[in-house]
Design brief:
The chain has about 450 residues and is of the alpha/beta class. It contains 14 helices and 18 strands. The protein has helices at about 80-90, 105-115, 140-145, 165-175, 185-190, 200-205, 210-230, 250-260, 270-275, 280-285, 300-310, 325-330, 345-355, 365-375; strands at about 1-10, 15-25, 30-35, 45-50, 55-60, 60-65, 90-95, 125, 150-155, 180, 195, 210, 240-245, 265-270, 315-320, 395-405, 420-430, 435. Helix 7 runs parallel beside helix 8. It is globular, with a radius of gyration of 21 Å. The protein starts with a strand and ends with a strand.
């Protein structure tokens, strides 16, 4: 049996492709034929035919910021359930952050995860820690991590507060061209904070996290990179590549905008919850723990700046920061709740509902943000729509309307502020690793 998709919108920004056409896949997920309108593929007896009028076949979506909690916190999520959640969300690949127990700060843990992930239905990349134990004190052996296939490093969940340690991280990571992903947060300012500092935190009587806690660390890091480029450029094999995780403030966007104009190799990602919700939603939630995240939901001014930055190209990627927690860790009031939400299964819906259908970005730009650029930042092989190659595809119905029912999520955890939210745009399948999931 083969699968024939007719009248689909084929989008692959890696090939500057956005055309209506047909595609045939073998049962083992190999692209057998492609035709672009007005030409079409004639159905064969062995074809299972799908009329994809109005639907999208896109290069496989890749989430560069996920937490699958294994090893150490498998009661929240594990590689199996996380992979099922990714498939349901239309993702063919993810990158896993190292805040596990033990953390991914050595070759043994990295090798264990990569070996276990090899049999899973999606591609899994492993992000190593910047510092041993993610304590922010001593950098890890990046060469050892790189030899196991690690392409990026981060202490996500914790910033590297020590400036000397961060400088050494930039210098050492440049030897292997590793992407350095920073969780920008000045913990001296944010300690004990529950939500964004502002009028709504005051009305709720909750300790706030000031927006400047993000920009202080980001500004420090950018200045370190400038210093190294001025004084050490000839001694570094590669220019440092720096990525801002879950950017959330207007001032941080302006710093990234300025650094890009200077020619620094700086990139950033935004989460669907940060471009959709604000601290006003926290105020109206009734102290719901599902609205506690780090960085917190910011002001409407910050959110509007993120939307503009998505439109004008300053933001490079949409990443979910998929952060599962057990019910007892979120159903306890916002002041006691753990940080984070699940996001893989609502990402496409939110991107199309809040961005594409509101004419902030095009479907082509959405696929760039969800697929092409994240893969490029992680130095992954580009996806090609070529006959004879193994397909890496995501199938999206941009006009399908659906209701988020958290009880039906494939993730082991159900912590989402988007329960009962109506969305327009839905992932309906993937082709990955020799299988077609529809």
């Amino acid at each position: 049996m083969s699968y024939l998709f007719q009248n689909a919108r084929l989008i692959n920004p890696e090939e500057t492709l956005d055309k209506v056409g047909s595609m045939r896949l073998s049962e083992s997920g190999v692209i057998e034929a492609i035709a672009f309108a007005p030409e079409t593929l004639t159905p064969m007896a062995s074809d299972k035919v799908f009329d994809f009028t109005g639907n999208i076949i896109a290069s496989g979506l890749f989430d560069m910021h996920c937490h699958f909690r294994e090893p150490g916190f498998e009661y929240k999520e594990d590689l199996q359930t996380g992979s099922r959640s990714a498939l349901a969300g239309g993702f063919t690949g993810v990158a896993l952050m190292p805040n596990t127990e033990p953390p991914i700060d050595n070759a043994q843990v990295s090798t264990y995860l990569r070996h276990k992930a090899a049999s899973l239905p999606i591609e899994i990349e492993v992000i190593g820690a910047i510092t041993a134990g993610r304590k922010g004190e001593k950098i890890c052996n990046y060469g050892e991590l790189w030899e196991t296939g690690v392409k990026a490093i981060s202490d996500d969940g914790s910033p590297v507060m020590n400036s000397r340690t961060m400088r050494l991280a930039f210098e050492y990571a440049s030897m292997f061209d590793l992407l350095v992903i920073q969780h920008c947060e000045d913990t001296c300012l944010s300690a004990g904070g529950v939500m964004n500092e502002g009028v709504y935190s005051s009305l709720l009587g909750l300790r706030g996290v000031p927006s400047i806690s993000e920009t202080i660390v980001l500004s420090r890091d950018l200045n370190l990179i400038r210093y190294l480029l001025d004084t050490k450029k000839g001694a570094m094999p590669h220019i440092p590549r720096y990525h801002v995780a879950h950017i959330s403030t207007k001032e941080a966007i302006e710093l990234v905008r300025q650094s890009k104009a200077e020619g620094l190799l700086v990139s950033c990602e935004v989460t669907p919850h940060h471009f959709t919700l604000t601290d006003k939603d926290v105020f109206h939630s009734g102290y719901d723990g599902n609205f506690r995240m780090n960085p917190p939901l910011r002001s409407e001014r910050d959110r509007d700046t993120l939307l503009q930055a998505l439109s004008d190209g300053i933001i490079d990627a949409i990443a979910t920061d998929h952060a599962p927690h057990a019910c007892h860790e979120k159903d306890c009031g916002i002041a006691q709740a753990s940080f984070g939400i699940v996001g893989l299964e609502t990402s496409v819906g939110l991107a199309f509902t809040e961005l594409v259908h509101k004419n902030i970005i095009s479907p082509y730009r959405a696929i760039e943000l969800l697929s092409t650029i994240p893969r490029r930042l992680m130095k992954l092989p580009p996806i090609r729509f070529q006959v004879g190659t193994l397909a890496n595809l995501s199938f999206i119905a941009p006009d399908d309307e659906w209701l988020v029912d958290t009880s039906q999520l494939k993730s082991k955890s159900k912590n989402s502020p988007f329960y009962n939210k109506h969305l327009k745009g839905k992932p309906i399948g993937v082709a990955c690793k020799g299988k077609v999931w529809l």
